[in-house]
């Protein structure tokens, strides 16, 4: 893309909109010009870079003045490009986007099963944060790192949210697509913003989903970006002061064998926890919970749990293409057919029955295979020996 050409076109469009007193579009095009100028600054050096940064900031200031004429709420950040001193463009990843404004309202008690895993979380994270003074008497400080690994769909993200809710902490999820940038130096700056945002809270949980993508084995990737990012991340983690900031690092991965070993050392993601498929008790709980606001008739949750070996939590009770959704759809179809036959008048909703689950079991198959579990078991054995 010719950023200079796009910049000049955006400025010209802003002038046209100004002639029509269309302040909303004036702001939109000025912010677009700022974004294009910022991209140019990425590719420049020295005084040229500094001049482009100043120009981008000037476009943004003019855009702000145009927004003021629209009124509060007008052109709400549409096309806006917040330009920092180093010339990067923060439209997609601003610091405030990292932090969830409301803390999760779920707790570890809401997590079905996983008794052993919850015991580890309680002793390793929750209790040290709730009783920091007591732990300090033994020289143990709150704030630690846990890497959850296991097959997809087993609830690792849900557990991370529950941990944040349990300790009343800000939950800060980190997604690879929001962090990695092809622009030199931008990813490093975004990571710095991330940790600064975490430090702004009395307690925070920073959750790295797909951790193997953010901490890949060094030497195994040809990406120059990752060659810089992994050391930067490790340095930021090492720089956390538990006396000043209570920050919990959580990671989740479906492929722990691809992670850089340096990331799983003590003080980083020092504790590895396997999150496997739910046991029969957990499966019964998940199915019953998924059906609690749905009309049902004589469902045998224990029998369903016995028949769903190898099903993940997502297979059982996910929002889409899950066993419970498929059973509900069968009952819903009967209800819709009854409504169409009745024409006008109220029709009682058809309850979900065991026959509906029989139909669902034929269509929804377990996603977790025995060979997958064997691979995780081999990894666990190798890690325990190391």
Describe this structure in words.
The chain is of the alpha/beta class and 386 residues long. It folds into three domains: 89 residues; 177 residues, P-loop containing nucleotide triphosphate hydrolases (Rossmann fold, 3-Layer(aba) Sandwich); 88 residues, Helicase, Ruva Protein, domain 3. It contains 17 helices and five strands. Strands 2-3-4-1-5 form a five-stranded parallel beta sheet, sandwiched between helices. Helix 1 packs antiparallel against helix 2, helix 2 packs antiparallel against helix 3 and helix 15 crosses helix 16. The protein starts with a helix and ends with a helix.
Work out the count of structural domains. 3
| The CATH homology group name of the largest domain | P-loop containing nucleotide triphosphate hydrolases
* Contiguous runs where pLDDT drops below 50 for at least 5 residues: 72-101
Question: Average pLDDT value?
Answer: 80
Overall structural class, as computed from helix and strand content, comes to alpha/beta
CATH architecture heading of the largest domain: 3-Layer(aba) Sandwich
Helix content: 40-55%
Spatial strand sequence of the major β-sheet? 2-3-4-1-5
Q: Percent of residues in beta strands?
A: 5-15%
CATH fold description of the largest domain: Rossmann fold
Could you give the distance between the termini?
49 Å
- The count of helical stretches stands at 17
């Amino acid at each position: 893309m010719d950023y200079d050409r796009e910049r000049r076109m955006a400025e010209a469009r802003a002038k046209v909109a100004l002639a029509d007193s269309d302040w909303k579009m004036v702001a939109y095009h000025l912010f677009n010009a700022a974004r294009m100028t910022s991209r140019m600054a990425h590719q420049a050096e020295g005084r040229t870079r500094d001049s482009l940064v100043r120009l981008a900031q000037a476009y943004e200031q003019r855009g702000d003045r145009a927004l003021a004429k629209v009124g509060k709420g007008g052109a709400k950040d549409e096309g806006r490009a917040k330009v920092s001193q180093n010339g990067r463009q923060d439209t997609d990843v601003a610091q405030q986007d990292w932090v969830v404004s409301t803390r999760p309202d779920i707790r570890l008690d809401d997590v079905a099963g996983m008794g052993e895993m919850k015991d580890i979380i309680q002793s390793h994270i929750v209790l040290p944060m709730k009783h920091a003074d007591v732990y300090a008497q033994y020289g143990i400080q709150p704030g630690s790192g846990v890497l959850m690994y296991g097959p997809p769909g087993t609830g690792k993200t849900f557990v991370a949210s529950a941990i944040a809710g349990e300790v009343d902490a800000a939950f800060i999820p980190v997604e690879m697509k929001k962090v990695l940038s092809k622009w030199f130096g931008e990813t490093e700056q975004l990571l710095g913003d991330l940790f600064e945002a975490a430090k702004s809270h009395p307690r925070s949980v920073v959750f790295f989903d797909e951790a193997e993508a953010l901490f890949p084995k060094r030497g195994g990737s040809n990406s120059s970006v990752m060659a810089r990012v992994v050391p930067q991340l490790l340095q930021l983690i090492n720089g956390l002061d538990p006396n000043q900031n209570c920050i919990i690092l959580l990671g989740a991965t479906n492929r722990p064998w691809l992670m850089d070993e340096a990331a799983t050392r003590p003080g980083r993601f020092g504790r590895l926890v396997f999150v496997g498929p739910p046991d029969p008790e957990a499966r019964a709980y998940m199915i019953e919970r998924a059906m609690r606001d749905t009309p049902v008739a004589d469902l045998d949750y224990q029998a369903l749990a016995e028949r769903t070996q190898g099903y993940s939590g997502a297979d059982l009770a996910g929002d889409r293409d899950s066993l419970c959704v498929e059973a509900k759809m069968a009952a819903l179809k009967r209800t819709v057919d009854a409504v169409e036959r009745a024409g006008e008048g109220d029709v009682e909703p058809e309850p979900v029955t065991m026959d509906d689950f029989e139909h669902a079991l034929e269509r929804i198959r377990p996603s977790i295979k025995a060979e997958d579990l064997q691979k995780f078991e081999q990894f666990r054995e190798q890690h325990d020996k190391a």
